[in-house]
Design a protein that fits this description.
It is a single chain. It contains seven helices and eleven strands. With 291 residues, the chain is of the alpha/beta class. Strands 1, 2, 3, 4, 5, 6, 7, 8, 9, 10 and 11 form an eleven-stranded mixed β-sheet that branches. A hairpin with a 2-residue loop joins strand 3 and strand 4. Helix 2 packs across helix 5. The longest helix has 25 residues.
């Protein structure tokens, strides 16, 4: 059984991970281009941790400019087995007020400008995304939240829009009427790529606002959001610290097969595969290609 390595992607407001011991900054190159920034590695109570700031320090990258493939690739190269995304979001439900954490279980992808797969011409693969979040990882996060007395709502659909603009009122009302819980701009194609890389993935959606459907929030501003971001970031890093302390030191097989997603996914015949693409897939798909 493989050793657990917990990865953390910090979204808006989460640009560092306090409490890391034996902290090191590592720059890892990727054949998919430049990741958002260097990796911060260390440990918490002996558990290896790898942290990546999604937007980089200073928030340099908009959601559309993030190299999601490079980010997931370097996390995979660092040995990450389980990945937690801390992500700011808007809410479509009155009971999910600013400051609430939502343990997302489903996604709807409304992005259109991003590279969403490691595979393509020369090596085609189709992974299952029916259940995009690793259930066992979600359980550990929920238990950590309960231990830290951090309120967290189980289940909810996250709709990911392209951005960087916030929604129109018509869009916001449409998503609300469809029953979605939260809205954000970054978790797709991140979740898809994590699945292709056979990394167990889960999102903690940290609500900053009600989006513009709400009569009291019809003009969401960055200034309003930043106030909540600061409070959410403190709770988010505290949640990660507790999760790490209690996390299994041996990687648990995912009950839905997140960590073996490529077992039956590759459809291109071996003799028809592009050698150059295979080189780029050395980390993401090395287990299945070498097997």
């Amino acid at each position: 059984m493989a050793k657990s390595v917990l990865g953390v992607i910090g979204g808006s407001g989460v640009y560092d991970l306090p409490g890391l011991q034996n902290k090191q900054t590592k720059v890892i190159s990727s054949p998919w281009g430049e990741p958002s920034g260097p990796l911060l590695t260390g440990e918490i109570d002996g558990l290896p941790i790898v942290f990546l700031s999604r937007h980089d320090k200073g928030h340099r990258f908009s959601p559309s400019d993030i190299n999601y493939r490079a980010n997931i690739d370097v996390l995979k190269r660092s040995g990450v087995t389980d990945l937690v995304s801390l992500s700011a979001c808007g809410s479509f439900k009155e009971n999910l007020a600013p400051g609430t954490f939502v343990l997302v279980d489903q996604f709807v992808d409304r992005t259109h400008k991003r590279e969403s797969s490691f595979f393509g011409k020369g090596c085609v693969a189709h992974v299952s995304m029916a259940h995009p979040v690793s259930p066992r990882l979600r359980i550990h996060i929920a238990e950590a939240a309960r231990a830290e007395d951090i309120g967290i709502v189980r289940d909810g659909t996250y709709v990911c829009i392209e951005g960087p603009q916030f929604s129109t009122l018509a869009e916001s009302l449409t998503y609300k009427n469809l029953g979605y819980a939260v809205i954000g701009m970054t978790n797709m194609p991140e979740a898809k790529l994590a699945r292709e890389a056979e990394i167990c993935y889960a999102t903690v959606a940290m609500v900053t606002d009600f989006d513009c459907w709400h009569p009291d929030h019809d003009a969401v501003t960055v200034q309003d959001i930043i106030k909540v971001l600061i409070a959410n970031a403190e709770k988010g890093t505290r949640l990660v610290a507790r999760l790490a302390r209690d996390f299994p030191r041996e990687h648990e097989p995912c009950p839905i097969g997140s960590d073996r997603a490529l077992d039956n996914a590759l459809i291109t015949a071996p003799e028809a595969r592009d050698p150059e693409l295979l080189k780029k897939l050395d980390a993401v798909a090395g287990r299945i290609l070498r097997g």
